[in-house]
Design a protein that fits this description.
alpha+beta; 147 residues; single chain; Thiol Ester Dehydrase, Chain A
């Protein structure tokens, strides 16, 4: 059973189809960690061009999925409720496994440090027991722009 479904996720972050890369939040320990599921299907719009006949999820979109999971982790804290988490930096990104249609991405994000409105998270995108991507992300929390 999930902690947050897609409709609840969309109440927290501004991303929508086709740039919403999570289906549900499976585990959430506010201020500490989150585990999110992204079911990768052949219907994803990016597979039309990446690559025809050899569909591969772009690495930058795996990073985006991890950033979205990190946003949920950050924005579920009382301190940042109603704000927006922005990606500030990507550090040491490594891509270790190709992600294809039919794969289930498990996005694991762990809070490393947080100060004021900035912080760092350690991330892993897993397919089964294999890491598809690992990285550290820096985030900045700001006001939600209503324009």
């Amino acid at each position: 059973m999930s902690v947050l479904e897609a409709s609840e996720i969309m109440q927290l972050i501004p991303n929508r189809y086709p740039i919403l890369f999570m289906d549900r939040v499976d585990e959430l320990n506010p201020g500490e960690s989150i585990v999110v599921t992204k079911n990768v299907t052949i219907n994803e719009s990016f597979f039309q061009g990446h690559f025809p006949g050899n569909p591969v999820m772009p690495g930058v979109l795996i990073i985006e999925a991890l950033a979205q999971a990190a946003s949920i982790l950050i924005l579920k804290s009382e301190k940042f409720a109603g704000k927006t988490a922005y990606l500030g930096a990507i550090k040491d990104a490594k891509f270790r496994k190709i992600v294809r249609p039919g794969d289930v991405l498990k996005l694991h994000v762990q809070m490393v440090k947080q100060r004021s409105n900035m912080g760092t998270v350690s991330c892993q995108a897993m397919v089964g027991d294999k890491a598809a991507c690992t990285t550290d992300l820096t985030f900045i929390v700001g006001a939600t722009d209503s324009k």
